[in-house]
Amino acid sequence: MTTIRGARERARTEVTAAIKDEARRQLAAEGAAKLSLRAVARELGMVSSALYRYFPSRDELLTALIIDAYDAVGSAAERALATADPADPPARWTAVCVAVRAWALTHPHEYALIYGSPVPGYQAPQLTIEPASRVGLALISIAADAHRADGIALPPLSEELRPEAQRLAAQLAPGLPPEVMAALIASWAQLFGLVSFEVFGQFNNLVEARDELFTHAARRLAHEVGLMDRHRTP
């Protein structure tokens, strides 16, 4: 029985992977709004009723693809963080940013699924929150490590924003100064703004030295968060 169960589980895993692969192909060709379970089943030579045993609705398939995409970019960020010099916070920050950009440029349609226009009629469930947080948590960990080690330069923070920054710090990174937390949230948004400009073509016919611009911008974001160079303060 164990052998039979194992074979069934492997078969289910293989079919699930094939469904997702075909769905990603459709995302690239038609966009997320036109994703169709019937079309996926037809391309795989399956009847619709068989595919529904794996994904009962289009939204469940979309959710699976969204989680996969968030996990993929999160893994890229975490690998970069793990291999960067722990004694050089700005270099760690830049490495994570560069990894996020590289993943997005290699997987533009998956990037568009999670950071592009919302899919009409789709609302992401709670289970997407944890995968979606992985890049942000990687960036937060850099600031937290720096704060515990050599310290961090506190960015300016208006008194009007301080209560919100304190709430965010308590929720996401207890012990991190609210000044840093506010700068982190802003820099996280700016990182994906930079990546989106490139992925979605806003830099076309304008920016040629894109690697250099991105690296420069990522380092500036590290500076704005308060990460200090090994040899000098920002």
Structure description:
It comes from Streptomyces scopuliridis. This is TetR/AcrR family transcriptional regulator. The protein is mainly α and 234 residues long. The chain has helices at residues 2-30, 37-44, 48-51, 58-83, 89-106, 108-115, 129-132, 134-148, 162-172, 178-199, 210-225. α1 (2-30) crosses α2, α4 (58-83) packs antiparallel against α5 and α4 (58-83) crosses α6.
Task: Write a concise synopsis of the structure shown.
The protein is 69% helix and 0% strand.
What are its keywords?
234 residues; mainly alpha; 11 helices; 0% strand; elongated; TetR/AcrR family transcriptional regulator
Write the layout of secondary structure elements.
Layout: H1 2-30, H2 37-44, H3 48-51, H4 58-83, H5 89-106, H6 108-115, H7 129-132, H8 134-148, H9 162-172, H10 178-199, H11 210-225
Helix pairs in contact: 1-2, 4-5, 4-6, 4-8, 5-6, 5-8, 5-10, 5-11, 8-10, 9-10, 10-11
| Rg over CA atoms | 21 Å
Terminal-residue CA separation? 64 Å
- Multimer state: single chain
Strand content: under 5%
Count of individual helical segments: 11
> How many runs of DSSP E, i.e. beta strands?
0
Poorly predicted regions are none
Average pLDDT, all residues = 93
User: What sort of overall outline do the alpha carbons produce when their principal axes are compared?
Assistant: elongated
Major β-sheet annotation: none
| SSE order | HHHHHHHHHHH
Helix content: 55-70%
Structural class: mainly alpha
